[in-house]
Amino acid sequence: MKVILEPFQPSFRTIFLCMLSLFYLLLPTLSAQAQGESKTYVGTEICKGCHEKEHTRFITHSKMSSSFKSITRMKKGLTAEELKKCYECHTTGYGKAGGFKSEAETPDLKNLGCEACHGPGSGHASSSNPKDIKRRLDTKDCETCHAKDRVAAFNYKPVLFGGAH
Q1: What domains are there in the chain, each with its CATH number?
Q2: Range with the poorest average pLDDT among 27-36, 63-72, 111-120
Q3: Model confidence at 125, in pLDDT bands (50, 70, 90)?
Q4: Residue range 133-141: average pLDDT?
Q5: What average pLDDT does this structure show over 142-150?
Q6: Contact between residue 99 and residue 53 where contact means Cβ atoms under 8 Å apart
Q7: Hey, CA dihedral for 54, 57, 61, 66, is it positive or negative?
Q8: 122: phi > 0 → left, psi -120 to 50 → alpha, else beta; which?
Q9: Coil, strand, or helix at residue 147?
Q10: What is the pLDDT of residue 157?
Q11: Are 117 and 134 within 8 A, CB to CB?
């Protein structure tokens, strides 16, 4: 008995069902992207391409742009756990997906940058759509780090948008 295999020619229905199945398999990924869950940190230098004036003012006038220096000065007397707490407010995206990991691994995120306040910028950087980044900031955004207990502990006076733009 001889078996002859003929080329497979799928019907429209078969193609449609395969495409539908593929869509449902990819739906969770597409949904996560639509909700911004896949946005990553790109670093302040990327922002400079379109926002040169703001970038220059930030680098020139904001203490945030060199915030890692504080960690470097204090690092010697800190435990590993205390150092992690410093990273939360003195680096960009520490503890978040795609955020600061270490000075060696993510040097472009070692200081506070645009994304520390405006959120991960990959979506905005690729689309240039203002809706893809947090634009209107208020004091609540600052209170993540500039909380009353931290202000008292470190004796500093937070200034909303001081030197940022």
Answers
A1: 44-154 (1.10.1130.10)
A2: 27-36
A3: very high
A4: 87
A5: 80
A6: no
A7: positive
A8: alpha
A9: coil
A10: 57
A11: yes
Rounded mean pLDDT, 49-76: 91
Read off the amino acid at residue 38: S
100 CB neighbour count, 10 Å cutoff: 26
Q: Centre a 10 Å sphere on the Cβ of residue 163 and count the other Cβ atoms it contains.
A: 14
| Residue type at 47 in one-letter notation | C
Q: How far apart are CA 153 and CA 15, in angstroms?
A: 64
- H-type helices in the chain, by residue range? 12-34, 44-48, 52-61, 68-74, 80-90, 114-118, 122-127, 139-142, 148-154
Torsion sign (Cα): 97, 101, 103, 104? negative
What is the helix, strand, coil percentage profile of the chain, to 5? 55, 0, 45
